[in-house]
Amino acid sequence: MNKRARAMVNYLISIVIALLLAFAIIGALLLWQGVDPVETFMALFQGAFIGKSNLGASLLLATPLILGGLGIALSFRCGIFNIGGEGQLYLGAFAATWLGVNLVGLPFWLHIPICFLGSMIFGGLWALIPGYLKISKGYNETVTSVLLNYVGVYFVNYALSSFFKEPGALNHQSPKIQTSAMLSKIMSGSELNTSFLMALLIVALFFLIFYKTDVGFKLRAVGQNAEASRTSGIHTRKYLLLAIIVSGALSGLAGSAQVMGYQHLMVQNFSPNTGYDIIAVALMGNLHPIGVLIAGIFLGALRSGASVMQIMMGVPVTILYIIQGVIILSILGFSRANIDFIGLVGGLFRKKESQSMAKEA
Amino acid sequence: MEFLNIFLTPDFYSATFRLATPLMLAALGGVISERSGVLNMALEGQILMGAFFGYLGSYLFQNVWLGVLTAMVGSLFLAALHAFMSIKVKVNQVVSAVGLNTLALGITSTLFRFLFGTDSQMASCPGMANLDIPVLSDLPFVGPVLFSQHPLTYAAVVLLILLNLFLFRTSRGLELRAAGENPQALDVAGVDVIRIRWLAVLTTGLFCGLAGASLTLTGLNTFYDNLSSGRGFIAYAAVVFGKWTPVGAALAAILFGAGDALQLRMQTIFDIPYYFYMMMPYLITFFALVFFMGAAKGPAANSIPFEKDKGRRRSARRSRMGGN
Amino acid sequence: MKRKLMALLLAGALAVGLAACSRNVGTEDSAPPASSPTGGTTETTGAKDPSEVKVALVCGGAVNDGGWNASAYEGLQRIEETLGVETAYTEKVAVAEMPQVIRTYARQGFDLIFGHGAEFGEPMSTVAPEFPDTTFVAVNANVEAGNLTGTVFKFGECGYFCGMAAAMVSETGKIGIIPPDDAPNNKADIDTYELGAKAVNPDIEVYTAFTGSWDDLPKAKEASESLISKGCDVLLAMGDAYAVGVYQACENAGIKAIGWVSDQHDLSDAVICSGLQSVGDVYVATAERYLEGTMEQGVQVYGMPDGAQGMSEFYGLTEEQAAEVEAAMQDYLDGKLEIPTLY
Fold first, then answer.
1. At the topology level of CATH, where does C157-277+313-333 sit?
2. Where are the coiled-coil regions (chain B) (predicted)?
3. Minimal CA separation from B209 to chain C, in Å
């Protein structure tokens, strides 16, 4: 078995152990409460994957997480800790909704790209503020982007309560977007729409660009060692700016995909905490596009499964946060600790050999 | 004119200190951890743990001081996890914090449901009253502002002074700062860097426990899901804003508290959409940061796991950037 | 370099285009639910056997918030106890998850599904046509379709009488109100609170401090402190969980408070009376009508005339003052007093 495959298998095993650990902790909690853990997990699984509606809901919830998670992965890879996904997502969704409502009479093949583009520009610009401050002035971007989250969300909520409010609605909400800006559904009995396909395509594109092109190479170089890449002639600042703008643009898409995909109008707090969830997704996915895809679908499935679980078992949805936290920490821990599971298991049979293998690893 | 009157009433200043107390306690904790070289964005989760376990302890033992103790134990648990992940397993410290914050939200709101059910009636626990300092609290203006606060506000001030003395006037403090600036040199000098970092991160937990207790046990006397609502992130901002010094962090926390106290008072004067008032403390902090503070440079070895006998390897930098 | 960037942009545009191009023109995504052929079926189905009926509640917030969502949960429990039907609930459902949760209940054979809040209007409009045999009720939303009913309160009624009570009790001539936000339903009560107060004392000053959240307790406590420092001596707490924060501040300052939604005198002695919104009654009434098969089409408006809103007992008012408020309430019911309500 070559080294890479071995590392891969070890990584997969660590994920399985992380899952088992999370479910063991939750199982103990449930037993304490007198709820059957096996039945609960069955309900969770059923709610996540069984049936078109549940599967569709899982993928639907995964879509913004994948899009935003990719952006976060890119910026973190480049050493910029953009925590501002929440604000970028809201502003992106706001731009798309505004264009979706106010551009009348466009054909859908023009209207939809315009809305998406608008959301990417707004999200990107909102990310550019902390990005610029970081790159040219050295301000700590985690702090500025967190502060800007609040400003962005309150601004959008203000817009929805005033100049962009649907008259007569009981809630503060925008008018409905034009039919030509709505994405079409791709799975009956659920709200799953073409934005999921778009997310898949963007994952593939991201993968190709990041690993197979010159731009990607330079982005990775900048991320691994900014100083070294500067001395080797890479225009570091430009690539860092590119990374943060793309990161914001993807967060913006994560917002607009929800409005154009199925909400069709924007309510205040339309997507609470998604901007922070995408950080978790990026990290669970090890900042790798394929990892982000899997982590996004996993978290979407967990969300969708948890609501069904509460319906069937009466277990509070809040345990989901425990599952999520334990999984992030244990995946992280195992992948960092580099435990050689294959070697460990092999050791049960051939003690001597395993010792030498562990040394190798 | 009415606007200026806000600044002439002692009430504005005492509200500022009240609002700043949890931020200040958590930010001071953050300073300790980051000065020792462990990035700590898990303040939010630790405050939440402190808030819940403080409430739980005070409710179970019917004693507010035992509540403060359990608050510290609760957030110490999370701090220990952060220390284990960051120092022992050497994972990316931002990631560890994100995981821990989520975990804290899960633990507190699930236990809250399991233990207190879904009654609409919220059970209240014993809380602490304001402590008037004899004589001083009778002083005009200064009395109500500085000497008629709840005990944890005084604790925050005392801890600020102690921490400042500790960091900059004792050899142990010097060691702690060295652990965050140049751990290799410290190691060569025969000091246990790992031990210092462990102690620092655990101390942060104790501070955050107090911060959490100051939310639930000083008059509110009850708990609710996600009660910390982002205060930990503001405290983290205060650490950076204050350039990793106790006084700076405390001032940043007070600035934010003042912004919040101000917007709540301005609401009764100017009739503008309330969203802008909500934004105000964040905007004030943002602009203060951008215009007055300049670039911040943290401890050199902050967020870089310490690896004995390996020198300042580039790989350490890589792990800081995320991924592996 | 430039070419690479161009390629990047093009690739991005391609991805965006895919979402657009795979769109089948003419799918049912925007079909107005009102055109559903099931219109009217719910009126004529006749009485149902309670043991075969399942009722579900979906909340955006937490059912232990001691306010808006707790009142729905209480309504659901009363439905189970008094009508003997099976019930279930889901709390903390984000806007993104609403359609799935509602569908899951419908598919599991729940017959009557409540969405608790204006934000359920849209998702229910989407899902309702898919399940013509299920009845959907969106509370506080003005939506209607064949099997979807919206219920709203006559927002503004309670605010008026709470304002009257506040003005009577106030000694400083300044009263305050602490709402979470300025959504139209809250705004109606905020406005009538001032009107009611001015009806008693034309010189009274009314101050508002928004908290921006339904459940940030520490923030609500501070908002109260700010109004107290302004000289207010009666505060109306208009939030969910955070009312406790307001009452704590009032107790400390030795001033009076007014409760909201439910009688909150048992939470704090500072509460002199509460504006009641019997969300629970609406739930039970709706479920009863459903069982009897007498549910009506269209948005259902609940208010003081049908006992769904009103005032609690008066704890801190003199008998004359209480009588005066009650007289005003009677005038309103008799149509002698006009209050600008929403609906």
1. Rossmann fold (3.40.50)
2. none
3. 16
CB contact A254 to B (< 8 Å): no
State both tokens at B17: 């200190």
Structure tokens at B40: 């700590």
Whole-number pLDDT of residue C42: 43
**C positions 245-304 inside 8 Å of A (CB):** none
Confidence category of residue B22, pLDDT binned at 50, 70, 90: very high
Q: What's the mean pLDDT when you consider all of chain B?
A: 88
Three-class SS state of A170: coil
Q: How far is CA A126 from CA A149, A152, A258, B183, in A?
A: 9, 8, 19, 37
pLDDT of residue B323 exceeding 80, the answer is: no
What's the token pair of residue C241?
A: 């969980």
- DSSP secondary structure string for all residues of C263-286: --TTT-TTEEEEEEE-HHHHHHHH
Domain ranges for chain C: 48-153+278-303, 157-277+313-333
Q: What is the mean pLDDT of residues A317-331?
A: 85
Q: What is the CATH number of the domain that holds B193?
A: 1.10.3470
Nearest to C96 among A161, A258, A318 (CB): A258
What DSSP string describes C148-187? EEEEEE-BTHHHHHHHHHHHHH-SSSEEEEE-S---HHHH
For chain A, what is the mean pLDDT? 87
Topology annotation, domain C48-153+278-303: Rossmann fold (3.40.50)
Which A residues, 66 through 105, put their C-beta within 8 Å of a C-beta on chain C?
none
The interface predicted TM-score (ipTM) is 0.86
DSSP for B205-225 reads HHHHHHHHHHHHTTTT----T
Q: How many C-beta neighbours within 10 Å does residue B65 have?
A: 14
The region of weakest confidence among A343-357, B138-152, C154-168 is A343-357
Inform me whether the pLDDT recorded for B282 exceeds 70: yes
Tokens of C329: 């309430």
Neighbours of C312 (CB within 10 A): 17
Give pLDDT, residue A351.
52
Rg (alpha carbons) of chain A, rounded to whole number? 22
| DSSP code string of A188-243 | TTS--BHHHHHHHHHHHHHHHHHHHSHHHHHHHHHHH-HHHHHHTT--HHHHHHHH
pLDDT in tens, C270-317: 999 999 888 888 899 899 989 988 888 788 888 898 888 999 999 988
CA–CA gap between residue C2 and residue C43 (Å, rounded): 67
Facing B323 at nearest CB: one of A77, A139, A337: A77
Asked if B100 and A325 touch (Cβ cutoff 8 Å), the reply is yes
| Inside any domain, residue B198 | yes
Per-residue pLDDT tens digits for C22-79:
443 333 333 333 333 333 344 445 678 888 899 999 998 888 877 788 889 989 999 9
For residue C5, list chain A residues with Cβ-Cβ distance below 8 A: 215
Q: How far apart are the first and last CA of chain B?
A: 59
Residue B281: domain span: 18-118+150-321
- Across B149-177, average pLDDT: 94
